[in-house]
Amino acid sequence: MHNIILEVSNLQFMRGKQQVLDIKNFGLHEREIIALIGPNGAGKSTLLQIMALLLKPTRGILTYRGIAVDSRNALAIRRRMAVVFQEPLLLNATVYENVATGLKLRGVPREEMKKRVDRWLEMLGIAHLAGRRSHQLSGGEAQRVSLARAFVLEPDVLFLDEPFSALDFPTRLSLLKELDKLLKDTGIAAIFVTHDFSEVPYLTDRVAVLKNGRVIKTGSFEEIFKVKPRRENYLTSLYRVFESDAAG
Ligand SMILES: Nc1ncnc2c1ncn2[C@@H]1O[C@H](COP(=O)(O)OP(=O)(O)OP(=O)(O)O)[C@@H](O)[C@H]1O
Ligand SMILES: [Mg+2]
């Protein structure tokens, strides 16, 4: 197993008097992909936001490559991470500008910026949409733009909070397969929140189950679900109907 890249210890998070999270220890290894599952309100999104340094824990420490996160190093560490939310949060600008923004903020030179943006637009199959404005995209296209925005930053850690839940099954399946390959090829570590267990076999080295703010189980797919992971399933074969263009 690789080293731990990001870890929370003795984490507590309160919203007013409500204890939303209480986690003794939870860590993500380099190159690892964790599926984070659990019922509504379990605290999955909150945990992701804390690990992505978007929200400060009430108690506890976060360590990044063994270094405790504090107010001095937080911004630099934050820049090693990227987040994709359920609803694509795009700027009212072109697809190209949306993907380029993070690099602009990081002061990446123009030439290199263009190279990286073009590469990720290509990788996500949206190069032809570069000049399109964000409000003129379908949900699936917008989510591809969100993924390109995240990958172009070349993060060490990627957080995905139900990124595909609004998409139709064929789009979701093709994005899952692409994302699986992209993460493996780039070696980016990721935490992936989903309610759709059929997505879990694609993007998972380890499953973590969150309930009432606690990590109650972690383990391989088989250990958690007591069945073998299957990628090609009945639904996949039904949706082959979309693969041919011929009218029938
Ligand atoms: N902005 C907020 N203000 C107050 N309470 C909140 C806020 N966001 C979340 N909560 C509460 O914090 C708890 C954890 O919420 P969180 O969004 O992390 O759950 P989740 O596991 O992501 O749920 P879901 O599966 O519905 O997305 C819930 O009890 C929720 O009601
Ligand atoms: Mg959530």
Automatic annotation (TrEMBL):
<dbReference type="GO" id="GO:0016887">
    <property type="term" value="F:ATP hydrolysis activity"/>
</dbReference>
<dbReference type="InterPro" id="IPR050093">
    <property type="entry name" value="ABC_SmlMolc_Importer"/>
</dbReference>
<feature type="domain" description="ABC transporter">
    <location>
        <begin position="6"/>
        <end position="237"/>
    </location>
</feature>
<protein>
    <submittedName>
        <fullName>ATP-binding cassette domain-containing protein</fullName>
    </submittedName>
</protein>
<dbReference type="InterPro" id="IPR027417">
    <property type="entry name" value="P-loop_NTPase"/>
</dbReference>
<dbReference type="InterPro" id="IPR017871">
    <property type="entry name" value="ABC_transporter-like_CS"/>
</dbReference>
<dbReference type="GO" id="GO:0005524">
    <property type="term" value="F:ATP binding"/>
</dbReference>
<dbReference type="InterPro" id="IPR003439">
    <property type="entry name" value="ABC_transporter-like_ATP-bd"/>
</dbReference>
<dbReference type="Pfam" id="PF00005">
    <property type="entry name" value="ABC_tran"/>
</dbReference>
<dbReference type="InterPro" id="IPR003593">
    <property type="entry name" value="AAA+_ATPase"/>
</dbReference>
<keyword id="KW-0813">Transport</keyword>
<keyword id="KW-0547">Nucleotide-binding</keyword>
<keyword id="KW-0067">ATP-binding</keyword>
